Amino acid sequence: MEKGKTGKYFKYAIGEIVLVVIGILIALSINTWNENRINKNLEQELLSNLLSDVEVDIENLKDLDSISELALIAKKKILSYIKGEELSRDSVFYFVSKSGYTNSFSATTITYDEMKNSDAFKIISSKEIRREIAVLYKQYEKVKASEDWYFIGHLTLRDIRIEDFSTGSLYQIGIGEISNLDQVIDQIKTNRQFKNALVSNYASTQHEVYKESLEKAKQFKNKLIMYLKND
Predict the structure, then answer these.
(1) How many domains does the chain have?
(2) 24 is in which domain, residue-wise?
(3) In the beta sheet, which residues pair with residue 165?
(4) Residue 222 CB-half CA count within 13 A
(5) CA–CA dist 206, 188 (Å, integer)
(6) CA–CA distances in Å: residue 124 to residues 23, 86, 133, 211, 230
(7) Which of 112, 107, 82, 85 is nearest to 96 (CA)?
(8) 63 close to 103: Cβ distance less than 8 angstroms
(9) Cα-Cα end-to-end distance for the chain
């Protein structure tokens, strides 16, 4: 009789323990599900914000790509003119005025900085997307380094003096008044300082860096859109 009661109580106790364990497992499962859901929502929000930032970068890079392409064309036109190619006077002044530019790229890093400072990269579940983010912003650093070199050449070109040009600087051709057009044209064609500065102004390299950065930003944008749609 006592043995029967003991067995009964033992089975009851085991059942209670099993129910408690099941309850704990269910609670843990619900907690994990909620945590995953919160992280997924946060991931979606961060990546959507990052997408908006990159779209701004793409528009800026498009402008810089166009400007740097014109600067490169201008450089080639003026160098060809110096070598003897026919070019109208207005064209000479136009291309000289476009052979240098001062625009620079400033990446939109609001979301990227937030992710770095809050360690939010861990929330992004895709290793590929994490890697693509790192690659893109490393490319932006390359743009900055390239611009630093370009601007050194640009300043050298800007500071070359043209005696009979009222502003005293080739940088201002097309803006100021020129009292002796023939003299300025002659100096553009014969000034060795000007030619050397134009040859070494990194316009070709800068244009390639902008073009490369624009393509990488576009590719990243497309990958991010696909990830957000399929996630």
Answers:
(1) 1
(2) 2-230
(3) 178
(4) 6
(5) 23
(6) 31, 58, 11, 28, 14
(7) 82
(8) yes
(9) 62
> What is residue 163's predicted lDDT score, i.e. its pLDDT?
47
What phi, psi does 202 have (nearest 5°)?
A: 60, 20
Of 68, 33, 55, the closest CA to residue 218 belongs to 55
Coil vs helix vs strand at 119: coil
* Partners of residue 178 on adjacent β-strands: 165
> In this structure, are residues 100 and 157 in contact, taking their beta carbons and an 8 Å threshold?
yes
Between CA 122 and CA 54 the distance in angstroms is 20
Chain segment 39-93, per-residue pLDDT in tens: 688 899 999 999 999 999 999 999 999 999 999 999 999 999 999 999 998 898 8
* One-letter amino acid for residue 21 of the chain: V
How is residue 166 written in tokens?
């009222």
Q: Three-state DSSP class for 178?
A: strand
| Residue 131 structure tokens | 């890697």
> Helices marked H in the chain — which ranges?
2-83, 89-98, 110-117, 127-158, 181-190, 192-199, 203-230
Single pTM value for the model: 0.78
The answer to whether residues 146 and 213 touch, using CB atoms and an 8 Å cutoff, is: no
The tokens of 122 are what?
A: 């861990």
Six-digit token string for 212: 């490369």
Q: Is 58 exposed, middle or buried (0-12, 13-18, 19+ CB in 10 A)?
A: middle
- Three-state secondary-structure class, residue 162: coil
Closest to 152 measured CA to CA, from 205, 83, 190, 106: 205
